[in-house]
Amino acid sequence: MKLKTKVWLVSQSLLVLTAIIIQMTFYGEMKLGPLLGMPKRDYWDIIRNLEPEVPKYVLEKNLPPKMYDARLPLSLSEITAANLGAYRKAYRQEVGLRMAFKGGFVVNIIYLLGFHLLYFFFIRKLNQAKPIG
User: What's the number of domains the chain is made of?
Assistant: First the structure.
């Protein structure tokens, strides 16, 4: 295996490990789901942006969505009145988790391109350099 491949694999592995640590840290900090009374959802349900199940008590009481769904664009007074503050935060955390997941792929692609460009640049410069002595 070439030195270039080894260096790239080690550095890429460190980058992926860092992305996994970030994802697990973000997910570990989440406490609730985006709907009133909902526990934290499964990681892959959040990443795939699956629609959460509406809790049974909401269906039984026939509540309007503004009273239980923190994903809706609500004003601060509506959020406070429905006691959705923590659930709104959970919704924002879910959005952030999905964004960080996508960002990890973007960073890896940028790194791949940057690594190869810099590698060729440095190899060319080393080959052009005159030996000392």
Answer: 1
**Please, is 90 exposed, middle or buried when counting C-beta atoms within 10 Å of its C-beta (0-12, 13-18, 19+)?**
buried
133 domain-assigned: no
Structural contact between residues 41 and 94, judged by C-beta atoms closer than 8 angstroms: yes
pLDDT along the chain (133 residues), means of 10: 87 92 95 94 97 91 93 94 94 96 93 90 86 73
Q: Is the dihedral of CA 113, 114, 115, 121 positive or negative?
A: positive
Helix axes 3-29, 85-128, angle to 10 degrees: 170
